[in-house]
């Protein structure tokens, strides 16, 4: 049961994981799949030209069609090319999935953490001390590897924190995508004492990597003085339902919300119970930790914020789409609803101009009211690169509230806008590559217009993990708030 649990959690964490396909493709098949992909994004993506101009896109497409396509031989080659093209949209909800197969080859086995754009070991495995910097793998520098892998981790705008967090989770998988399967890996590293060493490491099974995943020091079990790392991982990192613990020395409750992708009615009921408990404990401070929250149902983010404010609030100023029909519907394998019905209902009051339907009425505005018994103490919110989509919307609500400081690192979700609301999963017919495509652009309600376009939600106090923190398993971000409260 222990082994099965670890593997299951690891698979869940690799939310974009698909097993590997390497089927041969003819040039005709490559062109057909590419053309479908191109037509999907050019006729349906609502913010395609926000970061990359029309002329730049024309150049990207032309370069592929005249040059790159000639080098495509397999579905994996096409997957890499389409992933690279999709990355130019700078949209964290536009996801390219690798074709499915039944087996997973052995992978690069080290569990790594990215700090200041460099790779460090996150466990003590294979004789490499924790916190050692990985300098190269098979003579390819770590900086070159990181650059090659960035395209596989979609993110809103120019944000890197989300990309880094996803690459950490999926490093062995993404390394395989980019460089293929290897019989061994020559790893050059610099230990914490400054000595440079090289060691050969054999690839390991996906199962064995999953079994070691809970041992990451960056999960901070040591900081919480928990010696059972698997139990800690299960109860703290992998737990989807909101949970709470207390730091009695500073009369503070810590509410961890790792997901908004839960049944809204049950989620709100859980929140009511937790806030009753917080009131009963007479906690003066509340820390809300959404660093691992990749999003989910927006209403859950709204309901959580409703427990923290005494005023009506706002999240969006407009939503828009550029098509009222689903492009290449014959290649769609999954949607939450029929797009035509969704569009007709959702955009019923929208104004159409120059091929874009603009909705200025937020369907959820009536829900954005304070809960009858809100928390009256001081609130802090912990954010990070994994904070995305609905979780980023919650962070923005807190950002707009000058009384709730954000601590940590920039979120993966965009500040001014993002795309979502309706998405379709496509399967390209020859390569079996899957494309998850959003169709609605959401412009957000913000108060600070000095934030550079392409940013995530910027913390009020940026606190980044250091190599020393990694070695000793110290949660510097949470510790910053604890020390701040202690001084007051």
What does this 3D model show about the protein?
With 488 residues, the chain is α+β, with helices and mostly antiparallel strands. The longest helix has 19 residues, at 161-179. The model is unreliable at 1-20 (pLDDT under 50). It is globular, with a radius of gyration of 23 Å. It contains 14 helices and 19 strands. Helix 5 packs across helix 6 (161-179), helix 9 runs parallel beside helix 10 (298-306) and helix 10 (298-306) packs parallel to helix 12 (390-400). Strand 13 (351-353) and strand 14 form a beta hairpin. Strands 1, 11, 12, 13, 14, 17 and 18 form a 7-stranded antiparallel beta sheet that branches. The protein has 3 domains: 20-103 and 325-344 and 424-441, Transcription Regulator spoIIAA (2-Layer Sandwich), CATH 3.30.750; 112-215, PDZ domain (Pdz3 Domain, Roll), CATH 2.30.42; 239-315 and 364-416 and 451-487, 2-enoyl-CoA Hydratase, Chain A, domain 1 (Alpha-Beta Complex).
């Amino acid at each position: 049961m222990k082994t099965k649990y670890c593997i299951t959690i690891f698979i869940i964490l690799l939310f974009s994981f698909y097993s590997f396909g390497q089927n041969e493709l003819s040039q005709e098949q490559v062109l057909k799949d590419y053309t479908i992909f191109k037509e999907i994004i050019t006729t349906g993506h609502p913010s395609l030209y926000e970061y990359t101009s029309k002329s730049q896109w024309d150049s990207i497409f032309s370069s592929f069609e005249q040059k790159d396509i000639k080098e495509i031989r397999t579905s994996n080659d096409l997957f890499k090319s389409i992933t690279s093209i999709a990355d130019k949209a700078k949209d964290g909800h536009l996801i390219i999935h690798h074709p499915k197969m039944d087996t997973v080859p052995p992978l690069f086995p080290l569990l790594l953490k990215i700090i200041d754009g460099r790779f460090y070991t996150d466990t003590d495995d294979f004789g490499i001390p924790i916190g050692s910097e990985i300098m190269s793998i098979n003579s390819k520098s770590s900086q070159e590897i990181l650059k090659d892998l960035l395209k596989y981790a979609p993110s809103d705008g120019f944000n890197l924190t989300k990309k880094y967090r996803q690459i950490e989770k999926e490093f062995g998988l993404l390394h395989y995508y980019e460089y293929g399967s290897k019989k061994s890996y020559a790893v050059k590293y610099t230990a914490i004492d400054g000595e440079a060493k090289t060691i050969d490491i054999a690839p390991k099974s996906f199962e064995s990597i999953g079994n070691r995943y809970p041992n990451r020091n960056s999960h901070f079990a040591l900081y919480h003085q928990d010696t059972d790392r698997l139990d800690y991982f299960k109860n703290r990192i992998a737990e989807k339902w909101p949970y709470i613990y207390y730091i009695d020395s500073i009369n503070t409750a810590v509410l961890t919300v790792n997901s908004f992708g839960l049944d809204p009615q049950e989620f709100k009921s859980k929140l009511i119970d937790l806030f009753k408990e917080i009131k009963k404990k007479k906690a003066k401070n509340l820390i809300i930790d959404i660093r691992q929250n990749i999003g989910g149902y927006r209403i859950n983010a709204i309901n959580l914020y409703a427990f923290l404010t005494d005023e009506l609030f706002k999240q969006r100023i407009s939503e828009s789409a550029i098509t009222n029909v689903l492009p290449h519907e014959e290649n769609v394998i999954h949607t939450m609803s029929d797009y035509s019905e969704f569009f007709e209902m959702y955009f019923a009051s929208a104004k159409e101009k120059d091929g874009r339907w603009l909705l200025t009425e937020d369907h959820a505005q009536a829900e954005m009211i304070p809960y009858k018994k809100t928390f009256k103490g001081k609130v802090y919110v912990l954010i990070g690169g994994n904070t995305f989509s609905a979780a980023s919307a919650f962070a923005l609500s807190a950002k707009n509230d000058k009384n709730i400081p954000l601590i940590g690192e920039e979120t993966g979700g965009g500040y001014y806008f993002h795309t979502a609301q309706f998405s379709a999963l496509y399967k390209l017919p020859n390569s079996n590559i899957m494309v998850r495509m959003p169709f609605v652009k959401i412009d957000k309600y913000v108060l600070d217009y000095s934030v550079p376009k392409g940013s995530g939600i910027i913390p009020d106090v940026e606190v980044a993990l250091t190599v020393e923190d990694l070695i000793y398993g110290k949660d510097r971000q949470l510790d910053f708030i604890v020390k701040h409260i202690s001084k007051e």
